[in-house]
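Below sits the subject:

***
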Amino acid sequence: MVFWQRASALLFTCAPLINAATLSVRDASASSDGLLVDTASGKVQGFYNNTAHTVRAFLGVPFAAAPSGSLRFLPPQKRQRSSGVIQATAWPPSCPGLYSNDTNIYSLLPYFPFAGFSEDCLSINVWTPSLSRLKKGQLLPVNIYIYGGSFDQGGTSIPTYEATDLVANHDVVSVAINYRVTIFGNPNSPYLASKGGSVNVGLLDQRFAIEWLQKNVAAFGGDPKRMIAFGQSAGSISRVYPHS
């Protein structure tokens, strides 16, 4: 009990610093070099990190329609192209997942999602070098991170998955994808199966995101022929299930 009381006190003491760190990630540079990218979902506005001026970030870029209402429990569907500019400058919400007030790794900083939860959650984060770092026509290898969490929690707004430092030091495009978890991603419903539906829509979200990237990652400087997907825990298992 004493340990957790001290841990809680430390958390509250550090809260202003944590908040400042979050804001520094979201603050945009005055430069507009390469920050407006055209994708199948619409034009996307990104930003430069204040601590890494050679890295462009695009947070919460939608790759599919919101899986809510009549689309809930169904495989991901194509999203209508936005007529306006999509502001990809803030951490996106995570898909609804298991969350408890009990102390565990996913309820402590830096592992819990900053941006809350929403069913409109099928999005990706992209970190890519500035145009000044890219040679004309150059396309970089792409790594696609799939988070873990036992298929019942997780999200791309968890700060420990932030890839600015990686991209600042290596010529690579780094992507993190959101996918449905818990009952929303793995309904395991005999009724859905009897109607020809899928009981693994969370895995289909991952595939849909990768297919979207194949068609759009070049706009971010990535090479669609050199993409690799990897993950942690449930994320790594996800790369095996579709082929087993």
Q: What stands out?
A: Residues 55 and 168 are 6 Å apart (CA to CA). Helices lie at 2-26, 164-169, 182-185, 190-194, 201-216, 234-238. The chain is about 25% helix and 20% strand. Strands lie at 36-39, 42-45, 47-49, 52-62, 86-87, 123-129, 140-146, 173-177, 222-231.
